[in-house]
Structure to design on (257 residues):
């Protein structure tokens, strides 16, 4: 089925008449949005006028979330390309890119799964990178698991120092999330008080591996009706709402409570 109408692909100067015409035509369909993919941060303030969803595949995340781009209400998304220059030897950089966007309030991501054949460097594209594909697949599963928090209207983005970005989101017990990310290629350690964690003795770490097997009140390991171990998320203790963590390059961390 149709998801959205594509207004333009990486438009440059002078493309306003074409964008205006396409957006006007497709806006007649009230059931499908229009979107435009831009690689020109200097033109974001113009491009956002001609679409319901603005996506960016260049220029970094910081510039995309500016007030002029958001326009007060527009949905902004990222289209993280999978190019060799983005260090495929460390595919976790893509997870960091994803979490970095979440921590800044972006509400969507488009994956471009292509294999470059012409008009660019042969070998570029997610279709050519199995390691990156595995990261993208797990990222999608993590995003779906966090939907109750990510789709909540209660969201607080913040920064810790000059490297770590974070967001607290969610409004239901068991579906509150703390998202932290170091989107840089350098490790960093933090010790930060998070107000929303005050009073909690422990939190779950939903995407940490391995999971642990559930026990009953007597300490016996639990199994389901088919004799399979019942696995639960790891937990970490807290004191005074302070999070202490050593992030590797492109490291991420999620807490749930």
């Amino acid at each position: 089925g149709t998801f959205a109408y594509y207004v333009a692909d990486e438009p440059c100067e002078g493309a306003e008449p074409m964008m205006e015409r396409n957006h006007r035509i497709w806006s007649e369909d009230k059931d499908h949005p229009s979107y435009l993919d831009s690689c020109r941060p200097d033109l974001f303030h113009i491009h956002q006028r001609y679409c319901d969803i603005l996506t960016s595949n260049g220029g970094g995340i910081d510039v995309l979330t500016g007030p002029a781009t958001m326009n007060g209400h527009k949905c902004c998304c990222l289209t993280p390309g999978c190019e060799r220059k983005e260090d495929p030897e460390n595919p976790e950089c893509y997870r960091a890119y994803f979490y970095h966007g979440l921590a800044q309030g972006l509400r969507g991501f488009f994956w471009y799964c292509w294999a470059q054949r012409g008009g660019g460097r042969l070998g570029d594209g997610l279709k050519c990178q199995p390691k990156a594909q595995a990261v993208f697949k797990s990222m999608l599963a993590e995003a779906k698991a966090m939907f109750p928090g990510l789709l909540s209207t209660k969201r607080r983005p913040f920064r810790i120092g000059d490297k770590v970005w974070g967001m607290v989101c969610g409004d239901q017990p068991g579906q509150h999330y703390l998202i932290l990310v170091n989107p840089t290629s350098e490790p960093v350690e933090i010790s930060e008080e998070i107000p929303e964690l005050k009073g909690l003795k422990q939190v779950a770490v939903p995407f940490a591996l391995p999971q642990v097997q559930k026990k009953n009140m007597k300490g016996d390991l639990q199994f389901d009706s088919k004799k399979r171990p019942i696995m639960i998320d790891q937990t970490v203790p807290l004191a005074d709402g302070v999070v202490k963590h050593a992030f590797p390059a492109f490291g991420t961390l999620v807490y749930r409570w």
